[in-house]
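Posting for a labmate who doesn't have an account.
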Amino acid sequence: MDRALRGSHSNTNDIVSLYRIAKSWGIASCRNKCWTRRLVWRATKSAGEPRERHTDAAQNYVGVPNQNRFPNFLSLDSRISKDIQVNPKYAVRLSVSSFNLTNHFNPEALHANVADPAFGFFFGHRGRRFTADFDVLF
């Protein structure tokens, strides 16, 4: 059995738009005569983006922009796939992807209107989720 294990790992700490992001990703593959397995992962952590500006009931801006921040962001995503060679010309790829494996609360938006009864609450969280894919490769 011919095995090839390729690993790729990158860890960067950059200041982008005044907030810190750390990303890590990698690929591991295993191959034999008629099928290939592949595992891909991505981990992302950031110190939180600056919040949007607050508005009043008339939609006028109030307060100092970028004074507050979203909560810390943490996500671990992965995908495992298997390629099956059907004939020399065609192959089938079966894969399962997972998103936010840590199930960390990563809000997408904020109630920013000071007249809103829910002012200051974060919403739009996407919890842990999975998808399955079927692809034909030619």
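Reply:
Got it, the structure tokens are right above this. The radius of gyration is 21 Å.
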